[in-house]
Amino acid sequence: MDRPDEQPLFPDLPVIDSAHHLVDRVSDAIAPVLGLRRFLIDDYLDYLGSIHHVIASIATEGLSMYRATGPAELRCVGETEFLNGQAAMAASGLYGPCLVGAGIIAAIDCRRGDWVSRILEHQIAAAPQRLKGFRQSALWDADPSILGGIFDCGESLYRQDEFLRGFAHIARSGYCFDAFVLAPKLSDVLFLASRFPDAPIVLNHVGQPIGIGAHGGRLAEEFPQWRRDMAKIAACENVSVKLGGLGSYLLGSSLFRAQPPASSEQMAAQWRPYVETAIDLFGASRCMFESNRPTDDVGGFGTLCNAYKRITAGCSADERRQIFAGTANRIYNLEIEELSRP
Questions:
Q1: What is the average per-residue pLDDT within 51-61?
Q2: What are phi and psi of 141, to 5 degrees?
Q3: Comparing 145-159, 278-292, 310-324, which segment has the lowest mean pLDDT?
Q4: What SS3 class is residue 166?
Q5: Domains and CATH numbers, the chain
Q6: Measuring CA to CA, which residue among 41, 25, 29 is closest to residue 90?
Q7: For a pLDDT cut of 70, what percent of the chain falls above it?
Q8: Is 101 helix (H, G, I), strand (E, B) or coil?
Q9: CB proximity list for 172: less than 8 A, separation 6 or greater
Q10: Which of 92, 196, 242, 284 is within CB 3.0–4.6 Å of 322 for a Cys-Cys bond?
């Protein structure tokens, strides 16, 4: 819920939410992370509210609505079909002007060998107009309590030969790949981006700093290493970065699910070092705003969006247009009509 005292900054600025999830009947393991079992188009639109000019969004895989039968490698296609259906509802105009799910980032498992090309074919067929990329998380930390055995993908997935053989199919396809690691493994994203310099890669959640478990209370101490790793990745011109993910449980912040919710000033004060550094390193043309809802849970969208607008207040008007819509529109080839008007 938005704070009643929040008034929108730059209210006419077009916004594309470059990452959020739409899920239903999520598993018992994932439900505590999301704080819910269902988050559909109506829920997302209620979350957005109307104080910011959100024109479109990108729905990202969230381990939901997999097929119950058929080859195990293709069950993830069920989620893409589901997301495409939600996006079709939005495209009807009956839910308002926002094109929810204008782009879809689908699940993929690059460890499936020759199956990867078949998975690509089926995923593309499931959402031929809206599919814009794929994501396979590589979440791992030396402290197993951080992921609780839910998302642990094994150490250095993006360096494994089996993964790299499968990833080559994505690189040849021309689709974007969303990379998601915890900050201590950012070097794995650098390895992948260097290995496939022509593959467009989008780093999720500003490299996902963590402040829980063994990293609790060490955000300031670990910030310099995060910055060094981000600088190396930024030197890879095929990598863009999403500005978000700082409102999840992983940061260990008191803002997470706070009651009453934090103000945009409080959010901006805490997140500014990461967001400003990412913009400085990558440039506005390779940065894109995301809500990461419902994983990011710090209150209403109006407040969260204001926080990022506060952080970018020192940017030029053109830089803000890129960060909040232009970069996502270009990188994911969304072709949003409003952004093409003179």
A1: 97
A2: -150, 155
A3: 145-159
A4: helix
A5: 14-340 (3.20.20.140)
A6: 41
A7: 99
A8: strand
A9: none
A10: 284
Tens digits of per-residue pLDDT, 89-105? 999 999 999 999 999 99
Indicate if the alpha-carbon torsion angle 103, 108, 110, 115 is positive or negative: negative
The CB density around residue 232, as the number of other CB atoms within 10 Å, is 16
Residues 6+ apart with CB under 8 A from 192: 158, 159, 164, 167, 179, 201
Q: Give the burial class of 130: count Cβ atoms within 10 A of its Cβ; 0-12 exposed, 13-18 middle, 19 or more buried.
A: buried
What pLDDT is attached to residue 150? 77
Q: Which residues of 36-69 are buried (b: 16+ CB within 10 A; e: fewer)?
A: eeebebebbbebbbebbbbbbbbbbbbbbbbeee
225-248 pLDDT, tens digit each: 999 999 999 999 999 999 999 999
- Specify the amino acid at residue 285: S
For the segment 80-89, what is each residue's pLDDT rounded down to a tens digit? 999 999 999 9
| Torsion on CA atoms 317, 330, 240, 304, rounded to nearest 10 | 50
